[in-house]
Write a structure and sequence with these properties.
The complex is a heterodimer of chains A (329) and B (278). Chain A is an all-alpha fold and 329 residues long. Chain A folds into two domains: 3-96, no CATH class; 104-323, Orthogonal Bundle (MetI-like fold). Helices cover 76% and strands 1% of the residues of chain A. Chain A is built from 13 helices and two strands, in the order αααααββαααααααα. Chain A has helices at residues 6-17, 20-37, 42-46, 55-65, 71-83, 97-132, 137-151, 154-168, 186-224, 227-234, 239-277, 282-291, 295-323; strands at 89-90, 95-96. A two-stranded antiparallel ribbon of chain A has the order 1-2. The relative contact order of chain A is 0.14. Chain B has 278 residues and is an all-alpha fold. Chain B has a single domain, classed as MetI-like (MetI-like fold, Orthogonal Bundle), CATH 1.10.3720.10. Helix content of chain B is 73%, strand content 0%. Chain B has twelve helices and no strands. Chain B has helices spanning 2-11, 13-30, 32-35, 68-104, 106-121, 124-134, 139-149, 152-165, 169-176, 181-217, 228-235, 243-271. In chain B, helix 4 (68-104) runs antiparallel to helix 5 (106-121) and helix 4 packs parallel to helix 12. The chains are: A mainly alpha (329), B mainly alpha (278). Chains A and B meet through helix 2, helix 7, helix 8, helix 9 and helix 11 of A and helix 5, helix 6, helix 10 and helix 12 of B. Chain B: This is ABC transporter permease. Chain B: Keywords: Cell membrane, Membrane, Transmembrane, Transmembrane helix, Transport. Chain B: The chain crosses the membrane at residues 15-36, 78-104, 125-151, 242-263.
Amino acid sequence: MTRNRIPAVARFLRRRIWQVVPVVFGIALLNFLILQLAPGDVVDVLAGEAGAATPEYMAQLRASFGLDRPLPVQLAYYLKNTAMLDLGFSFRQNMPVLQLILERLPATLLLMIAAMGCAVVSGVVLGVISARFVHRAADRAVSVFVLVTYALPTFWLGLMAIVLFSARLGWLPSSGMTDIGADLGGFEYLWDVARHTVLPALSLATFYLAVYTKLVRTAMLEYFGADFIRTARAKGATETRITLFHALRNALLPLMTMLGLQLGSILSGAVLVESVFSWPGLGRLAFESILARDFNLLLGILLFSSVMVTILNIFVDVVYAVLDPRIEL
Amino acid sequence: MYPALLKELLRNRSALTGLILLALVMCAATLGHVWFPGDPWDMVGTPMLWPGEDPANPLGTDIMGRDMATGLVSGAKVSLLIGLVSTLISAVVGITFGALGGFYRGWIDAFLMRVTELFQTVPQFVLAVVLVAIFKPSVATATFAIGIVSWPPTARLVRSEFLLLREREFIQAARTLGMGDGRLILTQILPNALPPVIVIAALNIATAIQTEAALSFLGLGDPNVMSWGTIIGNGREQVVDAWYICGLPGIAIVIIVLAFSLLGEGLNDTLNPHLKER
């Protein structure tokens, strides 16, 4: 990226950040619809089944939702609360929902980034190998591997990894993000977190690894027939150079598009992986709120994770523009 | 046309493997009841018997002494049922959205695509979890929730097919003959847009089965129905001591997902032959 693109990026970000607004509005509308259709009134659903909320809080909630008013007014109340980022209070966890979510966010982001890193790197390597040796033994081996990893349920793979690598071999820790009780500082802390990240990140990565491998292979094969590759060959560039600098660079673009499209699905995968590995992130929080029937928290997580997907997508677009200078921001 | 298609499908290696695996699972779901007729919730033996330890429970028993084989048979039925019905729901919603948007374009299209984008932005599994949790876990809510979260790719695909097809000459001809919109969509455009939809539906079944397993693994399964995810969820506390309780249903999920992915791949080769060389 040259220096004169930086103001363009800033302008683009300013423009795109407004796209979060319709998403928040849409999800809030969807949440409201779900609450209306659910059995019992909104407050019954939100306060949970077992009645952990105090009667005072229930009365306060009923007032804040305007439940004695007509439906459009109720909707306006709900949208107002959401727009002011007032996601309510979780009685089970005794904390405001937004605060709970923000506390858990960094762990989920770490897991997602680690898993995506693994999936992209190994997907590119396998994709390049199978495109380079198309219809030969290596290609066939990769495609069988891809087929199987695609079929493995993430949460099951995680459980089996715990059995093998934590229980039988004792190589890696099986739960949490740090060792409980160990008071570590500096590099020792980072090393501890890294060791805890390996199994959850790899379990989450396998599914996407399969998708990226297929995508890179298809894109590379397409580019091997393109004019600019023939030109490079005619100029006497080596096969390795053509593969890595000409075909792969272009094949990374569809990969970025796919990555952007899949952010929501990666977050979904994180919910499962986190509940297997007791990873203290958003997914684990969602699992806890299911167990406690804390629906207000659950709806808050749905809203927040959708907003996060939208924001991450904006960043994907910026990276896309960096990779491909033809794209205007 | 159809017998020829079937013949070609059987000659395709992916499709044939997929069909064989699928037949195996279907046998398990139907004939399995003859061998293992009991109620999967009945406690029939000593808890945590390993597979092969006792011929009365060939695949062992779980922590509560329930027969694993009976549970797996019940799970096969649940998986197939939820996978097929939820995919049907998502196909109907997706085709409706895509067909209306692609055919009418303009503001209808803009509106429908906005809704589609919204459903694509929301993390699908989280939305399914919310729907099932709030509307009480059951086979019906799980099927409905999985259908509701999985239609956007179908809608986009159908829309793009409709945008291309509506400009073709045979459609223009039918329009000139005075054919109404409804007939034009249903009898002329839709049949030609279906092949890629069939491929995506086969892959959707695979995803739906995985989603169902994940839901019941998290404890959001029908409390009266034994599904593969339920067995894995119940066995996870003991997974280190008795990995087969989680292991066997997981292998079953892998087989059925492989079956539908291979079938989808084979269908793609036969229905879109121009892509075969990729």
